[in-house]
């Protein structure tokens, strides 16, 4: 589909949205101008009292929700120097995120990764989250909310471990405001952003947000650029009605994408590191830390349009109707050499060499989501009751060109990277399955309900249920084998939760909940005919904890303990290990602690700690190899952080320092490759001006060699950037 056609479709749909059915909630109270556009240090606020739709559609606050919801506001992201969604997710208590080139922003949380965590955009679940997620500029968002634990009752299949909600900036009625940011730093990294809010009248407000980023990359020839733009319009034609319309455009383009550093024999390494411990003694060579092995004509990128509408209508003093309509249209392309396998020295390559794969993948992806919800707040026998009932329909179309082959080997230290042949032929991509086209369509029809009942003023019962009817239609054309294989699969699933919140004191709550959720055995967009025959996996979780505001509201504290299990994952038949069957399971249990403490008006520190034990309970692999007791890949079992900010009363400066610890993790089910733990230290000094702030920030100050994810295979690691500095200026007008 051409850019022009997609633009015309996007424009046409935006016009149609203005005539969509009306719905909604009471107009939010007016905010101050500082709420509109924020720059610099966050004002002290009780995030536990913030209302969030990520954890419930009942209008509950974080304090009233029987689960952990972490909120990173725009203020917090600015004061910590979190420029991207990956950096923001890594600042979330108990979470870790990486920059895997195919899906930057993959998340590990509560012992699970990838398909077990849903991505939401303005509260709407994105079909096939692992395909859609990108490393976006945080400037675009008012806040990022992370719901921990199964979220299937809210967002359907694939939400076993939680959900991430990216909440974009929206128009405000409180007045005109403008902000801008610009920065430059190591590795040719540059960033610029603008944010303008115009309150045209008491009934109409407009907001435009844009950002552009570019970098040379710390690895040779890995330049990249990113563009994001949002235009939103809000209407309040009458007191009880509000209408929001928005369009978003996102683009990323990589020169030659970085797919990780390969493990090599210790005897071949010029500067072997202790980053990994492997069963075969292979290491990461620091001498190749900045070496690129991708082909020179690699091409990777994505561009996407989002069109969104939300219409809230307060039908009565106690009944609200809300409708959300979203449309997404994206193209993605991956033309790379992605997997590098070490080969011992020989006459042609006396230093050792790397065998390399080639990949040519295109995505043409569209989906449409319509959700309508009735929300009521009324009394039953003198007890407050909040109820929401709704329905959702989503239709996703995903077409993919998929080519896999091999290219020339390269020297480990002096790679002549060569080019990828762009001829689509069996000679370049030989073998069955290596030259195929996928055409997929996924339709999901859902109904759901939630209820929060105050048994007493201090005892709240919360429950919810969701039913999903899923239909998958797929056609796989194998061009090399000359076959066309169509198949259809339907799934029916029920997710539910039951929880309670008890007030020990007005600002101290105990909570507990039990949840059930489901997930497919793989991405619905890419699932094979063989795996499509399997049923949805089942998840369950028990969680309890404490939320409290202490010391005259100067301390916010959350504490949670949980157990989470997924059953019916694919394993091998114990009686015949050549057969794949359902019956495997994995689980995790852990404790999470998070606190934000304002020691004085000038000094605040935030701290978090997550300790967990994740394992495969039952898993047989090829040959009957038993993986029970092993830790799932890319699951650090210790994650901790500490951040402090100080603004001396007598000086116009801001000082910050932060440390983040990520425990060791494995890259494969066999736990044969162990990546060591790392502690990363950042710091900054800012000078406050009447209209903004200039900040000098150092990142990874100890120049720690560490990895945040695996690369093109389990035997490659995505290394994080070395020590860097950047200078930024953020202003408000």
Automatic annotation (TrEMBL):
Its main location: membrane. The keyword Transmembrane applies. It comes from the Bacteria. Residues 62-163 form the TonB-dependent receptor plug domain. Transmembrane segments: none annotated. It is a multi-pass membrane protein. Pfam families: Plug (PF07715), TonB_dep_Rec_b-barrel (PF00593). GO terms for cellular component: cell outer membrane. Keywords: Cell outer membrane, Ion transport, Iron, Iron transport, Membrane, Receptor, Signal, TonB box, Transmembrane, Transmembrane beta strand, Transport. This is TonB-dependent receptor. It comes from Sphingobium chlorophenolicum L-1.
């Amino acid at each position: 589909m051409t850019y022009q056609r997609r633009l015309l479709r996007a424009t046409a749909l935006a016009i149609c949205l203005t005539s969509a059915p009306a719905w909604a909630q009471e107009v939010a109270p007016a905010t101050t101008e500082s709420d509109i556009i924020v720059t610099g240090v966050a004002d002290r606020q009780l995030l536990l009292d913030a209302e969030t739709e990520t954890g419930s559609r009942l209008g509950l606050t974080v304090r009233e929700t029987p689960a952990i919801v972490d909120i990173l506001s725009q203020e917090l992201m600015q004061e910590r120097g979190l420029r991207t969604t990956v950096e923001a997710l890594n600042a979330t208590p108990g979470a870790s995120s990486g920059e895997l080139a195919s899906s930057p922003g993959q998340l590990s949380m509560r012992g699970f990764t990838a398909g077990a965590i849903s991505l939401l955009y303005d509260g709407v679940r994105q079909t096939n989250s692992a395909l859609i997620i990108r490393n976006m500029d945080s400037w675009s968002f008012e806040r990022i909310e992370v719901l921990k634990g199964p979220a299937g009752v809210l967002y359907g299949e694939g939400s076993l471990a939680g959900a991430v909600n990216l909440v974009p900036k929206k128009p405000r009625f409180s007045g005109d405001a403008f902000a801008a940011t610009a920065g430059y730093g190591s590795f040719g990294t540059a960033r610029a952003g603008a944010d303008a809010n115009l309150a045209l009248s008491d009934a109409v407000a407009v907001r435009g947000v844009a950002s552009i980023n570019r970098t040379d990359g710390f690895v040779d020839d890995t330049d990249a650029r990113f563009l994001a733009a949002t235009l939103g319009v809000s209407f309040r034609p009458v007191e009880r009605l509000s209408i929001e319309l928005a369009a978003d455009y996102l683009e990323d383009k990589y020169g030659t994408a970085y797919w990780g550093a390969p493990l090599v024999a210790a005897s071949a390494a010029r500067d072997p590191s202790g980053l990994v411990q492997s069963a075969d003694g292979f290491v990461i060579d620091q001498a190749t830390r900045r070496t690129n092995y991708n082909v020179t004509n690699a091409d990777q990128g994505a561009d996407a349009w989002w069109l969104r509408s939300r219409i809230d209508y307060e039908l009565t003093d106690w009944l609200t109707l809300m409708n959300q309509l979203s449309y997404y249209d994206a193209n993605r392309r991956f033309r790379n050499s992605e997997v590098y396998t070490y080969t011992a020295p020989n006459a042609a390559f006396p230093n050792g060499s790397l065998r390399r794969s080639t990949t040519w993948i295109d995505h043409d992806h569209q989906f449409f989501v319509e959700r309508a919800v009735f929300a009521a707040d009324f009394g039953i026998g003198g007890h407050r009751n909040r109820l929401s009932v709704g329905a959702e329909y989503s239709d996703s179309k995903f077409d993919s060109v998929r080519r896999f082959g091999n290219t020339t080997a390269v020297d480990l230290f002096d790679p002549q990277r060569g080019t990828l042949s762009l001829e689509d032929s069996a000679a370049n991509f030989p073998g069955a399955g290596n030259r195929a086209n996928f055409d997929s369509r996924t339709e999901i029809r859902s109904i759901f309900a939630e209820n929060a009942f105050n048994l007493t003023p201090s005892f709240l019962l919360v429950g919810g249920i969701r039913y999903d009817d899923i239909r998958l239609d797929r056609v796989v054309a194998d061009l090399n084998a000359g076959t066309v294989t169509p198949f259809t699969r339907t799934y029916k699933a029920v997710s539910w939760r039951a929880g309670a919140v008890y007030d020990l004191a007005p600002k101290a709550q105990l909570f507990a909940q039990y949840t059930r959720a489901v997930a497919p055995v793989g991405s619905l967009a890419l699932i094979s005919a063989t795996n499509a025959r399997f049923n949805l996996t089942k998840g369950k979780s028990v969680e309890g904890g404490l939320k409290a505001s202490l010391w005259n509201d100067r301390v916010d504290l959350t504490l949670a303990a949980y157990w989470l299990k997924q059953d019916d994952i694919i394993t091998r038949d114990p009686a015949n290990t050549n057969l794949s069957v359902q019956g495997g399971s994995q689980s995790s249990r852990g404790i999470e602690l998070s606190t934000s403490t304002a020691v004085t008006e000038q000094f605040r520190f935030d701290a978090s700690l997550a300790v967990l034990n994740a394992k495969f309970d039952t898993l047989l692999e090829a040959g009957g190899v038993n993986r029970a007791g092993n830790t799932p890949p890319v699951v650090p079992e210790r994650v901790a952080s500490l951040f402090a900010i100080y603004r001396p009363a007598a000086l116009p400066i801001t000082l910050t320092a932060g440390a983040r610890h990520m425990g060791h993790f494995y890259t494969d089910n066999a736990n044969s490759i162990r990546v060591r733990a790392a502690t990363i230290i950042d710091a900054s000094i800012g000078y406050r001006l009447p209209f903004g702030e200039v900040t000098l920030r150092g990142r990874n100050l100890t120049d720690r060699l560490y990895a945040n994810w695996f690369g093109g295979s389990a035997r490659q690691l995505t290394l994080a950037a070395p020590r860097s500095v950047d200078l930024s200026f953020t202003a408000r007008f």
